[in-house]
Write a structure and sequence with these properties.
single chain, Rossmann fold, 13 helices, about 15% strand, globular
Amino acid sequence: MILVTGGAGFIGSNFVLDWISTGLGPVVNVDKLTYAGNRENLAAADGNPDHVFVQADICDQDRMSALMAEYRPSRILHFAAESHVDRSISGPGEFIRTNIDGTFSLLQAALGYWRGLEGKAQDDFRFLHVSTDEVYGSLGPDDPAFSETTPYAPNSPYSASKAASDHLVRAYHHTYGLPTLTTNCSNNYGPFQFPEKLIPLMILNALDGKALPVYGDGQNVRDWLYVGDHCSGIRRVLEAGRVGETYNIGGKNELKNLDVVHTICRLLDEMRPRASGSYAGQIEFVRDRPGHDRRYAIDPRKIESELGWTPAETFETGFRKTVAWFLENPAWVEHVRSGEYRKWIDHNYGSRG
């Protein structure tokens, strides 16, 4: 039995579905179901006895403790987080509450639960915290990629809140002995991604005939990681990672944002062509995000050399799969693009023209 937080979100739901489909055991899936948590992501697990869904808030420490006592998990995987940088700029309070206070509450509950275990159950227990490369700050064009020893330098309320949560996890291992693992990943993409993020936003705006808003000059660089590869990396760390260690999980796909958008347009021109010409004609440059980090890059040599993990998807194969998924799932798209989502897009991009 494992307990997953945030398992109705983008990365969490992909992890839960992968875990169940490979027969690795039962999952207790805890999610508050905020705007980014979607039960429809888990439709493939409906009726599966290995999947137990619980709607709950990780900030409720008593509830977390009760769930651990009831289900007796051997692993806790902590995905639950507010993760949308633009939202953290306009409303940082929820990021502080969920990412810092929520992680603290979960760690307190896990520590009490772990201390009550005995023998092999206590020895085998793991608390795996899923984090981001954004905690490391911004790189120059010729700087070496982020390693696990890169000093933290977060530049947004989101990345600062995740950095704080990483430090809490580290402290609970070094102070109390809680057997923790931390993973810091590069930019994820793939099925079920909430359409505020760059790749689904561009796909869906293109199909709707809307502008494709690119921040600044479009030269910001990110390392792109297909979500299925991220899930396999997490499973490998959970299986064989050294207690107390951090592992960076990257896709080895450094791309400028503008090149990502042009790639999406090229794939859509091929897979859903239109008579009026290329989707690239919809690209528009908009005022940049405040404090927009210029470049992220992950050095994954530690997870490769210690644990033998490498990403399976290339830039081309992963992007093609992602565009195809959004084309093949229009009902999911329409359901997730609620009135709140539309208002947020208007708020965030409407003033950037």
